[in-house]
């Protein structure tokens, strides 16, 4: 997950990701021209490294950059689920943010590939958000009809607490790399 405040240029961090990983370009507050240039640059890096770039909340930018798909903020799940299904038929990966069981159900109804459920633990990105905790995260994950990735406060210390939760994987901004 990119974050324009904590890691304005995520290029170096992306170089550390293992092949097959996905990068979600957020940078919501960046000027459009800056976000577009970054998307094109990251898409090229991701293709070269065997990674998938997903552009958050901007399917037009995803198309123009040649991204592998889109990431839907939770609010976007309430509109046009048939559109997200259409993108999946085009071969795109579609993921969605979720913060509750209701959002997971909406994501499943939209036929997304995976959900990023957050915040699992206290996080610097959203310090006022109420963390789910490992037990609630595990319960939501096990009940989910789609794969769930843990997001929020994930680092080498908290990662152990997710063992046995049923998570398909983890996502993060700064827990493992250079964006501290």
Please give a handful of descriptors for the protein shown:
alpha/beta, TIM Barrel, 33% helix, 180 residues
Detailed description of the structure:
By secondary structure, the protein is an alpha/beta fold. It is 33% helix and 16% strand. It has a 7-stranded parallel beta sheet with strand order 1-2-3-4-5-6-7. β4 (93-98), α5 (101-109) and β5 (114-117) form a beta-alpha-beta unit. The model has no long low-confidence stretch (mean pLDDT 92).
Short précis:
This protein is of the alpha/beta class. Helices cover 33% and strands 16% of the residues.
List the SSEs and their pairings:
Blueprint: H1 11-15, E1 22-25, H2 32-49, E2 52-56, H3 59-65, E3 69-72, H4 81-89, E4 93-98, H5 101-109, E5 114-117, H6 133-143, E6 148-150, E7 169-170
Parallel strand pairs: 1-2, 2-3, 3-4, 4-5, 5-6, 6-7
Helix pairs in contact: 2-3
What's the pLDDT, averaged over the residues? 92
Number of domains: 1
Assign the CATH topology: TIM Barrel
N- and C-termini, Cα separation:
13 Å
Give Rg in angstroms. 15 Å
Give me the strand/helix succession.
HEHEHEHEHEHEE
Strand content: 15-25%
């Amino acid at each position: 997950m990119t974050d324009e405040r904590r890691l304005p240029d995520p290029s170096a961090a992306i170089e550390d990701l293992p092949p097959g990983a996905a990068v979600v370009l957020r940078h919501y507050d960046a000027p459009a021209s800056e976000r577009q240039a970054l998307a094109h640059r990251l898409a090229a890096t991701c293709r070269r490294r065997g990674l998938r770039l997903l552009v958050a909340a901007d399917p037009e930018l995803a198309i123009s950059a040649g991204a592998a798909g889109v990431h839907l903020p939770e609010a976007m799940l309430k509109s046009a689920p048939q559109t997200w299904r259409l993108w999946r038929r085009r071969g795109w990966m579609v993921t969605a943010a979720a913060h509750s069981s209701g959002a997971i159900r909406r994501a499943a109804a939209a036929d997304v590939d995976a959900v990023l459920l957050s915040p699992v633990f206290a996080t610097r990105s959203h310090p006022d958000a109420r963390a789910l905790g490992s037990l609630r995260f595990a319960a939501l994950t096990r009940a989910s009809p789609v794969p769930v990735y843990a997001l929020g406060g994930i680092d080498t210390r908290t990662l152990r607490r997710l063992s046995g939760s049923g998570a398909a994987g983890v996502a993060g901004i700064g827990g493992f790399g250079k964006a501290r």
